[in-house]
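hiii so um. not sure if this is the right channel but i have a protein structure encoded as tokens and i wanna go backwards to a sequence. like what aa goes where. can anyone help
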């Protein structure tokens, strides 16, 4: 069970992120400093750095949240569920997060496209986050997370999600989650048509 201190820390972290995102959308990433974020969030720079090593990490926060959501869904999957189905369900939950936060994520995509720094270093799923998904999936059956099949399954699922994500922000399909499910089936099922 999460302690009061942990919940307060998470609320403060979320408030800091919200303040930073608003500033990034208003001014552009390249024109916002850590000090600006601290003033907007009403925190000290030391507090900011307790949550985030750098300003880049604030931009990557949606990816951290999405990865955490996927990890939770993998952990909660019923025993005996095939790995491909577990990955599809986990990433469908992440797709729901994206749909729910479309306006904010659209603003952040615009910020990333306008920033010379972020264009050179685009935020995305880092190798350690992908490895975490593999490890969580491997832990369901006490398998070796270094096994190539699990790594390939996760890499294909993440790539499929990335394709859907780009499609969704280019022109949202009428049923975005059904489209995501179709993309994920194609990505993780070698027999999908």
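sure thing!! here u go:
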């Amino acid at each position: 069970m999460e302690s009061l201190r942990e919940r307060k820390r998470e609320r403060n972290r979320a408030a800091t992120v919200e303040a930073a995102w608003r500033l990034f959308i208003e001014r552009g990433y390249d024109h916002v400093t850590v000090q600006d974020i601290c003033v907007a969030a009403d925190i000290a720079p030391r507090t900011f750095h307790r949550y985030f090593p750098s300003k880049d990490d604030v931009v990557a926060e949606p990816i951290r949240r999405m990865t955490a959501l996927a990890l939770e869904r993998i952990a909660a999957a019923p025993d005996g569920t095939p790995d491909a189905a577990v990955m599809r369900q986990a990433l469908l939950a992440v797709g729901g997060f994206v749909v729910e936060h479309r306006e904010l994520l659209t603003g952040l995509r615009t910020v990333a496209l306008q920033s010379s720094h972020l264009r050179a270093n685009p935020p995305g799923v880092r190798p350690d986050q992908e490895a975490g998904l593999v490890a969580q999936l491997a832990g369901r059956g006490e398998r070796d997370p270094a096994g190539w099949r699990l790594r390939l399954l996760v890499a294909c699922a993440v790539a499929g999600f990335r394709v859907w994500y780009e499609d969704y922000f280019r022109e949202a399909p009428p049923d975005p989650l059904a489209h995501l499910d179709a993309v994920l089936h194609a990505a993780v099922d070698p027999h999908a048509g």
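oh and The radius of gyration is 18 Å.
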